[in-house]
Amino acid sequence: MTWMPDLDPQPGDAGACDLIDTIIVPRARDLGGFEVRRALPSPKRQMIGPFIFFDQMGPAEFLETGGIDVRPHPHIGLATVTYLFDGEIHHRDSLGSDLPIRPGDLNWMSAGKGIVHSEREDPARRKTRRRIFGIQSWVALPSHAEETAPTFEHVGRADLPFLSDNGASVRVIAGELYGARSPVKTASETIYADISLEAGRSIPIDATHEERALYTVEGEVEISGERFGAGQLLVFKPGDAITVTAAAGPARFLLLGGEPMDGPRHIWWNFVSSSKERIDQAKEDWKQRRFDTVPGDETEFIPLP
Asked: Cα(248)–Cα(227) distance, rounded to whole angstroms?
């Protein structure tokens, strides 16, 4: 591939056990016909680069009942990142953003000092048979950005860099990979990419980013002779280049990571901060209804736990 470095193995290439620091099998939670698998935070690992929360939604199929209906709720100190493989979710927030997110699109909402949003399905869709499958993640904000004004950025599928050649395809969701850079603005160095391989095809992952992980979405991947099935988060050790191969058939995975966060982060409900006192303030602010409301979705809200 012209956009990828050489795949030839080097003498002394490490085995999978030398390349992978941690394997996380997400814990599953049934939300009533709708399963969510949470990979981060985990007892084994809180963060990978700036990623502090990582949920797989579905795959699930809804008839004329159920579905996605998340009432307005607050965030501070993080950016929510929504990326779908299937289905549609309607996003509204206290900045006035009001639009659907569809497969291959990116919603990047930076909460900063505080934002409120809702995630629902449009009423017309709820009357049809439909599927939902995707990833919701949070990236923690570095200290200098924790109290900035909130922002929202939607990047359509067609505007995210897409590379394809010889049985491998890459959509760069955030950051830079293989010479292509996503237009989304991040507060710290971040890599996030959707990668698909045809059976037997391989792709290299270099050691540019200190913290990297691979989340297997579909199929099996092989790394240095060891195979890993769907629904696993493989956290790589820093400093080594890695080759990932689609094993028995086609495979799809997400690459995520970036530079380490500038200190530990506290996480409670929908709040992330370097300060426990700031989280306590956010709790009280939500309890006292001091956050802004969501235009067009002002009636309902999720109470403080």
From this structure: 9
